[in-house]
Amino acid sequence: MAGTLIETRYGKLQGGKSGDVYYWKGVPYAKAPVGELRFQPPQPPEPWTGVRDATKFAAVAMQPDDFLFGGVLGRIKEPRSEDCLFLNIWSPGADGKKRPVMVWIHGGAFLFGSGSSPWYDGTAFAANGDVVVVTINYRMNVFGFFHLADLFGEDYAVSGNCGLLDQIAALRWVQENIEAFGGDPKQVTIFGESAGAASVGALLAMPEAKGLFQRAILQSGSGALLLNSAARASEIAEKILHQAGIRPGDRDQLLAISGEQLLQAALSLGPQVSYGPVIDGKALPNHPIEALKEGTARDIPIIIGVTKDEYNLFTMTDPSWTALGEQELLKRIHKEVGPVPQQAIDYYLHMGDESEPTWQKLIRIMTYRLFTQGMLRTADYQTKHGANVWMYRFDYETPVLGGKLKACHALEIPFVFANLHQPGVANLIGDGRNLQQISEPMHNAWISFARNGNPNCDQLSEEWPVYDFHQRAAIIFNMSSRVEIDPFRKEREIWKKER
Question: Ranges for the Carboxylesterase type B domain (predicted)?
Answer without folding.
Answer: 4-481
